[in-house]
Structures are given as structure tokens and as C-alpha cells.
Sequence to fold (171 residues):
Amino acid sequence: FTKSSVERVESLSKILLKLMKRIITALILVFGLAGVAFAETSIKAEVDKTTLTTDNILNYKLTVTSSEKQIPLPQLPDFKGFRIITQAQSSSINFSRGQAKTVLSFVFILLPVEVGDLVIGAASIKVGSDTYSTDTFKIRVSQGKTLPQAAPDTHSPAPDMPASDLPQYSL
Fold:
């Protein structure tokens, strides 16, 4: 090989290396921005038990996670057959891989006021043009020592339950 052909090969190698660096940088930007462009939203509900008596309480927790900047409040289920003893709400913003996620948490402490197979319906949230929903829960309530008391206002506290019997939560 002559000196000039070696110089040409080296020159072409440098040009190709620069071109590859630009292509790789462009791909990283495209795929990195694609992850930011697609908002992620999820909604999850959970209960601590599916069988209880009228002497027990039920813990219902709803968590909404979204990468949207503004998320609306979810549509809560009807807690028919239960009295809401207390409720709590918290929100936080988490940062991961350069992306912010908002987390809304709702906790409801429920006291059954009916005996039988009760259903807690799905909670849902509409973000943009998409609607997300949770599962429903079938809760079997049997008669305990305490007779269930009808609850005309499902948001009023239970008069017979001392505050010391309520579980303590940290969200």
C-alpha cells in the first residue's frame, strides 16, 4: 500500500466514525424523546380482605400513577353496603430516568352496614382521551356480634367505633 492510499483510508475511517456518532446520537434522542412523548397512566385498587364480619373493618386503597403533568381526580366507586369510617389522600411526584410521575393515593376505612355478598365497583380515571379502570371486588360479609347499622350518610363516622380501634396508616 502506498502512503497516499493509507491516508485516504484513514480519512474515510474518520468520516465514517463521525457519521456513526451522529447517527447514534440521533437514535438516542429519538428513542429518548419517544419515551417522554408517550404518557403512562395506571390505576390500581386493592382491599385487605374479601371476607369479613360486621365486627371488622375493610381497608380499600386506590393508587393512580401518571406521567401526565395534570391528572384529574378519579371517579370513586360507590361503597354501597359500607360506611366510610375515615379516609385519607396523599400525592407525590417521583422522578425516574428523567421523567416525572405523579402518584395519588386514597385510603378508605370501611365498616360493613349490610350482610351478604357486597360489590365494590370499579374506580376509573379519564386522562386525555383514555379511560383507565380498576377491578371490582366481591366482599362477603357475615353477621358478627355487632348488628350492622344503616348509614343514611355513607360519609359519616361510625358512632360505636372508638378511634383507638382504627388502624394507623402512613402514606
Summary: The radius of gyration is 28 Å. Strands lie at 41-47, 51-53, 58-66, 82-96, 99-112, 116-120, 124-127, 130-133, 137-142.
